[in-house]
Design brief:
alpha+beta; Immunoglobulin-like; 2 domains; six-stranded antiparallel beta sheet; three-stranded mixed beta sheet; 3 helices; 11 strands; about 40% strand; globular
Length: about 200
């Protein structure tokens, strides 16, 4: 049997098109994975002004109301401070404000983060800060108190604020409640009501 050249060409074209489609899908999938781990371009030069100690100070408080009719006040435990840069603005908008997991993750920014432990009333302090613009963020986990057959749902409250600090300035703030959402699918037994603060 003799196969004509025109028949070979006709058979080859669909195969080539299919291979191109597979290649395009693979590239698209790779781009999507990259987008989930990096929300923007990280520029070390933007962080340089924050790489040394300064004379500024930020103090503040953070808390959330819980229980029926807000009868309980739960204080914040830890607060994270990060410089405002092109990259951190995207992180703030995507993850902090919207809860988009694609906004998480940039290991190179971690050396510029500062963390403060709050007292039992949710008061915190950051000292020796250089002048600049900062994001402050913290979260509180608590049970709603609406006990049912499966226990009490756990909610997460994301607190935060964007501030500008002058050289040697002492700034006092109150963190705003930015987002409230269910925390995972975990439910505790009604017999073990536990409050967590992160």
């Amino acid at each position: 049997m003799t196969i004509r050249p025109t028949l070979v060409v006709r058979l080859a074209r669909p195969v080539a098109i299919a291979l191109l489609c597979v290649s395009a899908l693979a590239a698209s999938s790779q781009a999507a994975r990259s987008a989930r781990t990096r929300v923007g371009n990280f520029d070390p030069a933007e962080y340089a002004p924050y790489d040394s100690a300064g004379s500024g100070e930020i103090t503040g408080t953070g808390s959330a109301s819980a229980g029926r009719n807000g009868s309980r006040t739960i204080a914040l435990r830890t607060v994270v401070l990060t410089p405002v840069t092109s990259w951190s603005r995207l992180w703030w908008e995507r993850w902090v404000l919207r809860g988009d997991p694609a906004g998480e993750g940039e290991p190179r920014s971690e050396r510029y983060l500062r963390e403060a432990v709050a007292d039992s009333s949710g008061r915190f302090r950051f000292e020796h800060l250089p002048a600049g613009e900062y994001f402050l963020r913290g979260t509180i986990l608590f049970e709603t108190g609406d006990f049912g057959r499966n226990g009490s749902p756990v909610l997460r409250v994301v607190l935060g604020k964007q501030v500008v600090l002058g050289a040697g300035q002492r700034l006092a703030i109150v963190l705003d409640s930015l987002r409230v959402e269910p925390y995972g699918s975990q439910r505790r037994p009604a017999s073990q009501p536990t409050t967590r603060r992160d």
